[in-house]
């Protein structure tokens, strides 16, 4: 398996963004946002749920979306944001969006993949070389095709793709430098077969667990380690109960900005256009905010006594090779052509 990816930058992102906004509007003759005054918007109170701590850039992005919608509509559309899984876990939020109980949700791609399996491509280990390649895939033709497929199967609409960055490995006592170091480690994973397979390939004992339960699980020793991006490690306080973090970058955590079909079917076209445009604006803001704070989070965790392991190219290659069986298992499940399209995206 060749996992060497070309350096890539999302040169067409703005074009696809414009196309998505136009599709959301539904026709060329609709009013534009600039021409629409606050009086054109209906009075709505909507729910936006997500599993993230209020200090996380993802939570701030969700709140920024709510605030901007309120400002743009002169307060006519109110979006109530519910952080910290207060109205449901990631899986429950997808289910709630399906039936229209929740209007918007931020959910990791790996959780949404339980409802539409081609989305597993986003968590195929070491698929993405860097953030720009991940953005090019998620914002370009491959991403658009996946979002359309999700909508056809579940009714749920994808307005944008936030991110929580590349995933790391943390453990209580054991420093992780090579795949063999993972053998026998009781390890929390996302409740998705691909994530379980990824850590089984490393010899760990994977334990699926909701994000809201991870801190307690680590604190009580139910699990000895977990994998999450740097921002999540800091925001959820995992650094307080873990002594080691390895910057493995084994998966990119795209966070889907979802809207229920019930909302989409009932909202006027101008409102749908507003939601789509604002979601994409805050997507860019959230990505920049997330990447800006990661370095400071790592520095703070290291100063507080956490051991930070940065893999050498040889060590990273060893992890990549150890996860080849996951590619073999999921190539047919996800689709070889889809995977190749993602690899070839520039």
TrEMBL record:
Keywords for the protein's UniProt record, in alphabetical order: Receptor, Signal, Transport
InterPro entries xref list: DctP_fam, TRAP_DctP, TRAP_DctP_sf
GO biological process, one term: transmembrane transport
Pfam families reported for this sequence: DctP
Cellular-component GO terms for this entry: outer membrane-bounded periplasmic space
Gene3D superfamilies on file: Bacterial extracellular solute-binding protein, family 7 (3.40.190.170)
UniProt family annotation: Belongs to the bacterial solute-binding protein 7 family.
PANTHER family in the cross-refs: C4-DICARBOXYLATE-BINDING PROTEIN DCTB (PTHR33376:SF7), PTHR33376
Name this polypeptide is given: Tripartite ATP-independent transporter DctP family solute receptor
Source organism per UniProt: Roseibium marinum
Upper taxonomic lineage: Bacteria, Pseudomonadati, Pseudomonadota, Alphaproteobacteria, Hyphomicrobiales
């Amino acid at each position: 398996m060749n996992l060497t990816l070309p350096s890539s930058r999302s040169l067409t992102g703005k074009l696809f963004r414009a196309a998505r906004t136009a599709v959301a509007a539904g026709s060329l003759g609709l009013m534009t946002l600039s021409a629409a005054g606050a009086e054109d918007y209906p009075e709505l109170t909507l729910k936006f749920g997500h599993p993230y701590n209020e200090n996380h850039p993802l939570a701030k992005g969700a709140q920024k979306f709510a605030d901007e919608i309120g400002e743009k509509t002169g307060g006519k559309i109110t979006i109530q944001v519910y952080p910290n899984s207060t109205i449901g876990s990631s899986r429950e939020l997808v289910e709630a969006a399906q039936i229209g109980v929740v209007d918007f949700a931020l959910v990791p791609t790996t959780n949404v993949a339980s409802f539409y399996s081609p989305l597993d491509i986003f968590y195929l280990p070491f698929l993405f070389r860097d953030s720009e390649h991940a953005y090019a895939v998620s914002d370009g033709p491959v991403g658009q095709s996946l979002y359309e497929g999700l909508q056809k199967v579940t009714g749920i609409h994808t307005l944008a793709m936030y991110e929580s960055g590349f995933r790391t490995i943390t453990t209580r006592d054991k420093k992780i430098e090579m795949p063999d170091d993972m053998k026998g480690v009781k390890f929390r994973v996302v409740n998705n077969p691909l994530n379980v397979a990824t850590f089984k390939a490393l010899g760990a004992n994977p334990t699926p667990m909701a994000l809201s339960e991870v801190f307690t699980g680590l604190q009580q020793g139910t699990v000895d380690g977990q994998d999450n991006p740097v921002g999540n490690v800091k925001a959820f306080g995992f650094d307080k109960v873990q002594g080691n973090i390895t910057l493995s970058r084994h998966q990119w955590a795209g966070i889907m900005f979802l809207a229920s079909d019930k909302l989409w079917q009932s909202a006027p076209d101008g409102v749908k256009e507003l939601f789509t445009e604002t979601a994409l604006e805050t997507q860019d803001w959230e990505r920049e905010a997330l990447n800006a704070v990661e370095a400071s989070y790592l520095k703070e965790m290291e100063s507080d006594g956490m051991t930070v392991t940065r893999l050498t190219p040889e060590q990273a290659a060893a992890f990549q090779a150890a996860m080849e069986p996951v590619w073999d298992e999921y190539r047919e499940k996800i689709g070889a052509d889809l995977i190749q399209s993602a690899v070839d995206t520039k």
